[in-house]
Amino acid sequence: SAAEKGGYDYFMLKEIAEQPQAIADTLRGRLTEHGEISLDEVRLSDQDLRDIDKIFVIGCGTSYNAGLVGKYAIEHWTRIPVEVELASEFRYRDPVLDRSTLVIAISQSGETMDTIMALRHAKEQKARVLAVCNTNGSTIPRESDGVLYTHAGPEIAVASTKAFVTQIIAVYLVGLHLAQIRGIKYSDEVAAIVDQLKATPDAVAEVLTTMEPVRKLARDLSGSQQVLFLGRHVGFPVALEGALKLKELAYMHAEGFAAGELKHGPISLIDDGVPVVITVPSPRGRSLLHDKIVSNIQEVRARGARTIVIAEEGDHAVEPYADHIIRVPRTTTLLAPLTTVVPLQVLACEIAAARGNDVDQPRNLAKSVTVE
Ligand code: G6P
C-alpha cells in the first residue's frame, strides 16, 4: 500500500531515501569520540585479528560489488592483501586459506545459498569468517566466527540500495579496525576518513535533494538500447553496480567497465548517441586518476557517446566533455561511492518506471536466492 511505501511510488525509492539514516545507524556507537573504531559484535580476539595475513571477501550480486569497493580501502589502510570473489566461484575452487586468513562474507539477507556454501568451504580450511549482514540471526552470521551487522532496516525492493551503502560502511569499519589493532599508526589521512565517515549521512542527503534532473534524464534514456558505465579505482565497482541496477530493473543491456580497459575492447561499443555514464574521482587528492578519466570522457565523446558525468562540485575540468553533469558534494576518493551510487540507483529506478516495469519486483529475480 501507499502507506507502507511511506508516500513513495515504490519501495525502492523509499529505500533510496532512507540511505542517510541507514548509514548513520550503521555507524552509530562504532566510532568513539577519539576517532577510534569499536566493534563489539566481532567475536574474534584482537590476537586473531593481528594474525590475519590475507583477506577474502565473498558475496553475490550487489554484496559482491560492495566487497570490491572494500578491497581498495582495506588494502590501502592495512596493507593486508585482499581478494574479492563471487561466492559461486569461490565455493567450487581451491582457494588458498588457513587459520590466518580472514573471510568476510557479505550478505543482505544472510540466506544466499552460494554465500553459505562458500563460507562453509572457508571454515573447512580453518579460515576465520566474519559476516557483514543485514538480517539478525540469519544463517550466515550464525555460522560465522563474528558478525558486524549493517543497520539498514528491512529492504523490500529486490534491487539492493540501502544495503549496499551500509555494506561499504561496515567493510570500511572492519578495515579501519584492523589498521587500528595492528598498530598501524593512524596517518592524518585515516583520522580524516573517520571524520568524513561521520559526515556521509549529510552528504548522501544532499545528493538526494538534487535528483530531479536525473529523473528527467531517465525519461530521456528510457528508449536506449544499451547504457555503458565507466569508472576507475573505487569508481569501477560503482560502474558495475550502476550497470547491475539497470539490468535488474530496466531489462536493458548495461555493462560496467574499468575506464582503463576502454581501448582493450569496450570502446568498439561506442556509437552515435550511446549513453555512457562516467563517475569522476575528486580532482583534489588523486589528481592523476582524475585527469585520466577526463581523457577517457573525451575519448568516448569523440566517438559519438552521449556522456553523463557524475562529478563533484567545483570540478570544472569535465564541463567541456559532458552532455549532462550530475553533481555530488566534495568528498575523499574512498568515500565517493557512497554518494556517486545514489544517482545511478535513481536513474535505474526511473528508467524502469518509464518503461513500465515492476520496479520493486523485477521479472525473473528474487530478493533472496536460497537455492542453487
Ligand atoms: C539477489 C538479490 C540482489 C542481491 C543478491 C545477494 O540476487 O536480488 O539484490 O544483491 O541476491 O543477496 P544477499 O542477500 O546475499 O546480499
From TrEMBL:
Active site location: 367 (for fru-6p isomerization activity)
Part of the intact protein present: 267 to 638 of 638
Keyword Cytoplasm: yes
Function in brief: Catalyzes the first step in hexosamine metabolism, converting fructose-6P into glucosamine-6P using glutamine as a nitrogen source.
Catalysis: reaction(s): D-fructose 6-phosphate + L-glutamine = D-glucosamine 6-phosphate + L-glutamate
The protein's enzyme class: transferase
EC numbers on record: 2.6.1.16
One Gene Ontology CC term in the entry: cytosol
Protein keywords: Aminotransferase, Cytoplasm, Glutamine amidotransferase, Repeat, Transferase
Organism per entry: Cryptosporangium aurantiacum
GO MF assignments: carbohydrate derivative binding; glutamine-fructose-6-phosphate transaminase (isomerizing) activity
Name of the protein in question: Glutamine--fructose-6-phosphate aminotransferase [isomerizing]
Chief place where the protein resides: cytoplasm
Record-annotated SIS domain positions: 45-184, 217-362
GO terms of biological process kind: carbohydrate metabolic process; fructose 6-phosphate metabolic process; protein N-linked glycosylation; UDP-N-acetylglucosamine metabolic process
Domain of life: Bacteria
